Amino acid sequence: SSAVVFVGGTFQSVYAPPLTGTGLGTSHSHSYVASWDGSSWAALDDVDCLDGCATRKLDGTCSTNCGLDGAVSALSVIGTYDATLYALGDFTLAGGRTVSNLARYSDGRWAPLLPSGATLRGQSSKLSMLGPA
Fold first, then answer.
1. Percent above pLDDT 90 for the chain
2. DSSP state of 14
3. DSSP letter at 60?
4. Which of 75, 65, 73, 77 is nearest to 90 (CA)?
């Protein structure tokens, strides 16, 4: 098993050049956060959101944004094999759920960290974790 790199920011797609050096590369839609496993990019979409997708585009992808709806300013991970990713940024939805600028991604699902109705005000750009792996 190889390391996975998580990337967050203001991007909405990732371009992957062709592996053989011939032909055109591919652009993949990733809403502000993506992972790289050493050979390919993957969206961090919510599996429940994807399973419940009512409307699909011509290419078969879900019309609903099942990732984040705004820029990511910080990411942090706790754990190794059953890792949980924490994201902080200028987003209010993650996987179709209200998350108010702070969310966690684990087992293919986004979830809020703040109690319902709570929000972070102002800008934050740092995220640190303390706890067992």
1. 23
2. E
3. S
4. 73
Cα(80)–Cα(78) distance, rounded to whole angstroms?
Answer: 7
Nearest alpha-carbon partner for 85 in 51, 55, 118, 110: 110
Cβ atoms within 10 A of the Cβ of 36, count? 15
> Which range (18-27, 66-75, 78-87) has the least confidence?
18-27
**Strand-pair partners of 36:** 5, 41
And the tokens for 122?
A: 């102002």
Average pLDDT over residues 96-110: 91
> Coil, helix or strand for 50?
helix
Give residue-wise pLDDT tens across range 33-80: 988 888 878 888 888 888 887 777 777 777 678 889 999 999 998 877
Helical ranges in the chain per DSSP H = 47-51
